[in-house]
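Check this:
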Amino acid sequence: FYLIKLIIMAKKIAIAGISLLSCLALSEVTLGQNLDGRVGAASPAVPFLRISPDSRAGAMGDAGIATSPDANAQYWNVGKIVKNENDFGLSLSFIPWLRQLQIDDMFVGYLAGYYKFGKEKNQALSASMRYFNLGDIQYTDIHGTPQNVGSPREMSFDVGYSRSLSEYLSLGVSLRYIYSNIAQGANMQNTIYTPGNAFAGDLGLYYSKTTEQSEDVKSTFSAGAVLSNIGSKISYSGLRLDYIPTNLGIGAAYTYQMDAYNKVTGTVDLNKLLIPSAVYKNGQWNRPELSVVNGMMRSFTQAPEFYGTVVSLGAEYWYMNQFAVRAGYFYEAPGNGARQYFTCGLGVRYNAFGLDFSYLVPAVINSGKNPSLVTNPLANTLRFTLTFNFNQASAQKG
């Protein structure tokens, strides 16, 4: 019931057309003839920046903008960091990537942490590092002749600051450095590729209010909005500049604690990729060469019919704040990648230590019928996350 209310409320908030970006680079495919004027899928560079890095949100359909904060809020919404219950914490995640394709040397690693300070603990500093290992790749020329063997790697490092504006509202900002070495050493059509570098920033807003009905019964409504990866374009050859995945997202969450032992949360996220899509004209796809700001504006006017909408739905149940069961669903429109999958996961907390796990099951909707399993490169994706949370007093005592 509460999840349905959240969905309805979030749709009203998102009337302007918020939709989520694909975390994988999407191909611009010609679907037929006479396509002049057709808008293609948005394909940013460094799509690893939109791979959900933690198991908790990964188990809830990749929804994390408005859920209760932890160290991984540095990725989802930096504005949440200062609202953490603990004074400082760390999180370490590991994601084997695309194992369904029998790739054994590809993974995503994520490390994040925060520290609250000030008299009333109303400020916080945070930082995170993301590392994407794409394994080893055999480069070839246009005729298929083997050339060098490459070891593509991508990473980002960011620092953030958040502050409470009131009892219920907080704001945060972060700055990010992006390094992408995906084709160094490759020589295609006499073009030498070098590592790309870019700088970006996030701006996050978070609202959370708890209403107590009795000592053990309470409810919490939370909402968040975040602009992420606002920054420079990136280039690998000096001949072309590519957009990074600038994203606008909003989320809402509702938590109901029914007694001293049981608590349930429902959440929904809606996002939109703020880069212009390619347009098919005169027999080929052409991406507008615009500034970053103009590209963000064009992303709204190119697709007034909510093209590329992605919705993340999630649910979480806690028993005694020690054992968690999670589930979710992720939907992406067919015209922008067609990723549709279910997620599930478990979590356990013991003192300052936490362990979370998530699992992905792909699905496709067939004309209103029940979802059916399909072959998907994201199938059976696992995520593992370790968390550590401490308060200043307990840390000094230890």
